[in-house]
Design goal:
Largest interface: A-B, 28 and 26 residues
Distance between the termini of chain A: 45 Å
Strand order of the largest sheet of chain B: 3-10-8-5
Number of helices of chain A: 16
Distance between the termini of chain B: 39 Å
Order of helices and strands of chain B: HEEEEEEEEEE
Number of helices of chain B: 1
Strand content of chain A: 25-35%
Structural class of chain A: alpha+beta
Helix content of chain B: under 10%
Strand content of chain B: 25-35%
Oligomer: heterodimer
Shape of chain B: elongated
Radius of gyration of chain A: 22 Å
Strand order of the largest sheet of chain A: 13-12-9-10-11-14-19-17
Radius of gyration of chain B: 20 Å
Largest sheet of chain B: 4 strands, antiparallel
Shape of chain A: globular
């Protein structure tokens, strides 16, 4: 790999928490300077500390700080940053932000705003994918009336799922099993979507009863090159929030993997994409369907890094600099197995976020263990932001050994002063459905056992 | 631009403070102050001068250091020493201007009384000139920054006395 000559020298990281650190680390290794932005609550946060410079952009509430485009752009101007990395969440999928960044002659480390707009509109994304031969579920365009919805539902066959065109990430969806209830459900869903996303457009898709969520990591350059870095299995979810991810997906046969990864590359090519992205598929037996595309780095990118040996964030920055795929343009084969547990500051049974101060902290270590976290002893988990305090990632030669390594790592992990979901993970890793690899997106919610999780919480520290 | 809002390399080494805290504890001191070059470090028991509670070492009571060279730090966190003065801080990130244009007179001067709603300064960002107005009647006691200095959210601009 030849050294990249970057058209930018100083990257402003428009985010906080572990992903801000992740980006700062990538930049430092690439020889790029970094500017952190922070809210008054994050004055002592590690991203504020580890960046070469830091600018305070507002008070705690993210609407006034991490979503404050005006102050973020002003911080870039003041510090002389010439590129912006949006991380995930916050402004990462706001086409408007990417556009402003580009208008200010800064490099946006991500795709074109146009790509974000196509993929942010779920109906347009569906149609674009269908046209380019990527499999989608039987479904509709924007519904024009209750009668239209009923006619379409009859054609598709029950059950169906109502989705908001401006939704995504599992938000704004309703399952319909009875045609008579469809008009009423549609009306409620429209009102909710209007409130949540500012757009009441809805569409229908066939509902799959027992799907798995499998996504493919794609990378594409500005010279027409596009390829994939295998898949991630993300079916362990609660209320559409991923809790544990792994790579590769044990439900895919080699031919199916090849087919799915090729479809993902086709999806990226269909819109002329040129950055790091993820194509989410719904896997139903041995058939898969396009769900949505995420035009940013994902929380769970680490499991892909472990099984491919590729630093995805560095590659994302390289691609934004206009570099060709080069060393990435090859066939990847899974190198062992990786699992990631998202550690959240929350009640392990009720899942209510638990802000507070971490009084004692010990992260696990040893061969094949990686911790991506922004917390330290004395760190206060703020109620203003996401409750994730870190990610525990393990890598091993195969899935059974990765599970044992994760169990070992979880047993070493000590976070005192706040409640975390570590007991949930300990319980989860013991479940036969999990260890056998035979689970779908409903598994976690359907089999949650509060008593058993409480027992895990009680057993903690008695290793 | 050459501004470097917060350069942490100018802070004293944390290990140095940790060592100081050890000495502090070992000799059961109430206060220790060390000055060298541009750094001044002050450790004080939170209960000083009463002197009863034990001192924890992970968190020395107070550690002060020289301010960052270019951009003033934002308002101090609640742990910092109590300051009874009233400050007007910047709600924007940008460049601080005391007047509407280089030739125009300054909006306010030290000693001047200002009304609620009166313009105090301009904070410019991306060619947008944001006028900052007084939210309450007050007397300007100190102007804390020179003209054309970069400011971040929460930077103290004026020390005032409420009327």
């Amino acid at each position: 790999m030849t050294a990249t000559t970057f058209p930018f020298r100083k990257v402003l990281v428009a985010n906080r928490g572990e992903i801000a650190l992740r980006v700062i680390r990538a930049c430092r290794e690439l020889g790029l300077r970094t500017v952190a932005v922070y809210s008054t609550v994050d004055e002592h946060a590690l991203h504020t500390r580890f960046a070469d410079e830091a600018v305070c952009i507002g008070p705690g509430p993210s609407s006034q700080s991490y979503l404050n485009i005006k102050n973020i752009i002003a911080a870039a101007e003041l510090s002389g940053a010439d590129a912006v990395h949006p991380g995930y969440g916050f402004l990462s999928e706001r086409a408007e932000f990417a556009e402003i960044v580009q208008k200010c002659k800064l490099t946006f480390i991500g795709p074109d705003p146009a790509h974000m707009l196509v993929m942010g509109d779920k109906v347009r994304a569906r149609q674009t994918m269908e046209k380019s031969g990527v499999p989608v579920l039987p479904g509709t365009g924007v519904l024009t009336s209750a009668a239209h919805a009923v006619a379409e539902a009859e054609r598709i066959g029950l059950p169906v799922i109502l989705k908001a065109s401006a939704g995504g990430g599992g938000r704004g969806m309703k399952i319909v099993r009875d045609l008579r209830l469809l008009p009423q459900t549609l009306q409620t869903a429209q009102v909710e979507a209007l409130k949540a996303f500012g757009c009441g457009d809805m569409y229908l898709e066939r509902y799959v009863e027992s799907p798995r969520h499998v996504e493919v990591q794609v990378v594409a350059d500005k010279h027409g090159g596009a390829t994939h870095l295998l898949e991630r299995e993300c079916s362990i979810q609660r209320r559409h929030q991923k809790i544990l991810e792994e790579a590769p997906c044990s439900a895919l046969s080699e031919p199916l993997r090849r087919e799915m990864c090729a479809a993902a590359v086709q999806a990226a090519r269909a819109i002329g994409y040129h950055s790091l992205g993820t194509i989410e598929f719904l896997l139903d037996g041995d058939r898969f369907y396009f769900m949505e595309m995420n035009t940013r780095v994902q929380v769970e990118h680490c499991v892909t890094e472990m099984i491919t040996g590729v630093d995805l964030v560095q590659e994302q920055i390289r691609l934004a600099a206009g570099e060709p795929l080069a060393h990435l343009a090859r066939e990847f084969h899974p190198r062992g197995h990786a699992i990631e547990c998202r550690i959240n500051a929350e009640d392990p049974i009720k899942f209510a976020p638990q802000p507070g101060t971490i009084s004692a902290l010990h992260f696990p270590g040893g061969f094949g263990v990686r911790v991506d976290s922004h917390v330290y002893q004395g760190y206060t988990v703020s109620p203003h932001y996401d409750s994730m305090v870190g990610k525990l990632i393990v890598h091993a030669p195969d899935r059974p050994r990765a599970i044992r390594r994760m169990q070992r790592a979880l047993s070493e992990c000590v976070i005192e002063g706040i409640a975390t979901n570590i007991p949930l993970h300990r319980w989860l890793l013991k479940q036969p459905a999990f260890t056998s690899g035979k689970y779908d997106t409903h598994f976690l919610e359907a089999s949650l056992d509060p008593e058993a999780i409480r027992a895990e919480a009680d057993a903690e520290g008695l290793v | 631009m050459s501004s470097e809002p917060r350069d942490f390399s100018s802070l004293p080494d944390l290990r140095y403070i940790r060592e100081l805290a050890k000495v502090f504890r070992q000799y059961d001191l109430d206060e220790i102050e060390i000055e060298s070059g541009e750094h001044r470090v002050l450790l004080r028991r939170s209960d000083f001068p009463a002197g009863a509670a034990p001192v924890t070492y992970a968190r020395p009571a107070v550690a002060e250091s020289a301010p960052a060279p270019n951009m003033p730090a934002p308002a101090p966190s609640p742990a910092a020493p109590v300051d009874n003065a009233t400050y007007i801080t910047s709600p924007f990130v940008g460049t601080f201007y005391r007047s509407a244009s280089p030739d125009a007179p300054s909006f306010v001067e030290v000693g001047q009384s200002v009304q609620r709603g009166q313009t105090l300064c301009i904070v410019e960002a991306m060619k947008l000139f944001n006028e900052l107005e007084a939210e309450f009647p007050c007397v300007i006691e100190e102007i804390l920054l020179d003209n054309a200095k970069p400011v971040e959210y929460g930077t103290k601009l004026f020390r005032v006395r409420k009327l």
